[in-house]
Design brief:
1 helix, 5-stranded antiparallel β-sheet, mainly beta, 179 residues, 4-stranded antiparallel β-sheet
Length: 179
């Protein structure tokens, strides 16, 4: 749902992470908010616990803390296991934001979750891993990774970097080049 809504609003994902927490644990993530962003949506989905023990805490670059549930434009649905908020981003709040996912208490021993940040953008990027009919891929095979970038016009000299995560969890940064 979040992905479809984001596409319809021309929002780009700035962060998408998954994890698991035990009661009393927290995990934090960082996302860079630049001066082209005037609003961001922060969202958290989880599985298996009532949401009254789950919290999404935001920290601005200046150290100011915001509880997502207390923001004017927040959303929460206990039966669908998600909460989030839209936050206006003035130019003074650009920089590295920290997103804290907190599992304060609950009856589920391990809480699986995913956290997202998206923002409106005049740029649009899709990543594709093309499939060839009937081909099987094996460890070590060369696989093309295609990034298509579009905007209101040409996007010359764009620098695109992605992180490729192996099945074992190892991450490798990869620069993508124009062919």
């Amino acid at each position: 749902y979040e992905y479809a809504q984001g596409n319809s609003e021309r929002r780009q994902r700035l962060l998408s992470e998954k994890g698991q927490l035990n009661p009393g644990e927290a995990m934090s993530y960082t996302v860079m908010i630049d001066d082209s962003i005037t609003e961001a949506m922060f969202a958290l989905d989880w599985i298996g616990s009532r949401g009254d023990g789950v919290d999404l805490l935001l920290e601005k670059p200046d150290g100011t803390k915001l509880h997502c549930a207390e923001q004017e434009d927040s959303f929460y649905n206990d039966s669908s296991d998600h909460l989030g908020c839209r936050v206006a981003i003035p130019s003074t709040d650009t920089g590295e934001w920290t997103i804290g996912v907190h599992y304060l208490y609950g009856y589920v021993k391990v809480l699986p979750y995913q956290v997202f940040v998206s923002a409106p953008s005049s740029l649009f990027m899709q990543m594709l891993l093309p499939d060839r009919l009937g081909m099987q891929h094996y460890t070590g095979d060369f696989l093309p990774l295609i990034a298509m970038i579009a905007g209101d016009g040409a996007v010359p000299n764009a620098t695109v970097e992605t992180t490729v995560k192996c099945q074992g969890g190892e991450e490798t940064k990869v620069m993508l080049y124009d062919d």
